[in-house]
Write a structure and sequence with these properties.
With 302 residues, this protein is mainly beta. It folds into 2 domains: 40 residues; 257 residues, Neuraminidase, CATH 2.120.10. It has 3 helices and 19 strands. The protein has an 8-stranded mixed sheet, with helices on one face.
Length: 302
């Protein structure tokens, strides 16, 4: 490529003002069209319609949720400040994020603490035993451990950081992936490189092996033309440890923001139940209404 660039520099034709203007106009039209496609309403196949809601307990259902497929008949699980065991919080792990459960019955909660250079994933095996896997931060990695989404193949999982980010992080799934051990660092395996920035992602879940649905707590609305958007990330391939994958981000809709109180809502965790094709998202109400009318909203694709 270097040789080609040098050759191009030696033989570059004269640039005509009209041609330059046409080229710039074409590029501008293409850029506007691309932006419109990214923020336009999704196709009917990807339109999520609200079908109901349930009260969200601010102590035990305020951070995240997941449906559990194995063993059959298991109840849904939730996380909140009230679900952190004292044996965990006493060691500084004082924030739990949006959890996920795998096809083979493993349940994983993401933890963070106020300082340090690591984050932790707490895993419950199908038999009930708990284990902890610590990840030492990679260069430039934020301390936040807001959520985890296990790919349907079970071998790798995706997590995210707080703030405005252009990537998700891929890890081998602890306990499920044979290359992991509680006594060893859980490494970053690869990266999901997003085609546009996202902000304050509180949770993601796989709806297919190459599709993530994500809840964003974005308070500004400058990235997608709306605050608190439901996002879809279409991946170029299944996340794995051998290569990065690309992610195309689309805003599907704004999450419901309804309460008896006025003020700032907080979008929280997300779950897609593959058995019923039901999507659920937690939205906490402002002020003292967080205790009275916070909701877990249910959606179906229409």
């Amino acid at each position: 490529m270097r040789g080609q660039r040098c050759q191009a520099a030696r033989t570059a034709p004269t640039v005509h003002p009209i041609g330059t203007a046409r080229t710039a106009l074409t590029a501008l039209v293409a850029a506007v069209a691309a932006a419109a496609l990214s923020t336009a309403p999704a196709s009917a196949a990807d339109t999520w319609t609200e079908v109901g809601s349930d009260r969200a307990n601010p102590l035990t259902e305020s951070q995240g949720l997941t449906s559990v497929e194995v063993p059959a008949g298991s109840p849904n699980r939730y996380t909140g400040v009230g679900t952190i065991p004292s044996s965990v919080s006493n060691r500084g792990w004082n924030h739990v994020g949006d959890p996920d459960a795998s096809f083979n019955g493993y349940y994983i909660e993401p933890y963070q603490r106020d300082s340090g250079s690591s984050k932790m994933f707490r895993v419950q095996a199908p038999g009930g035993a708990w284990s902890e896997y610590v990840h030492q931060l990679s260069a430039g990695e934020a301390l936040n451990n807001s959520w985890v989404a296990i790919n349907p193949n079970g071998q790798f999982m995706v997590g995210g950081e707080w703030g405005t980010m252009s990537r998700f992080i891929v890890y081998p799934t602890p306990s499920v992936n044979s290359g992991t051990s509680p006594s060893a660092n859980l490494p970053q395996a690869s990266t999901v490189v997003l085609d546009r920035p996202v902000r304050d992602i509180q949770g993601c879940d796989f709806s297919t092996p190459t599709t993530l649905l994500c809840s964003s707590d974005d308070p500004a609305g400058t990235l997608f033309g709306m605050t608190k958007p439901l996002l879809q990330v279409d991946l170029s391939g299944e996340p794995n440890g051998s290569a990065d994958v690309r992610g195309h981000v689309t805003a599907l809709r704004q999450l419901p923001l309804r309460s008896s109180c006025s003020g700032s809502f907080e979008a929280e965790g997300i779950d897609y139940d593959r058995r019923t094709s039901t999507l659920r998202v937690i939205v906490l109400s402002p002020g003292f209404c967080v205790a009275t009318d916070s909701k877990t909203y249910r959606f179906t694709r229409s």
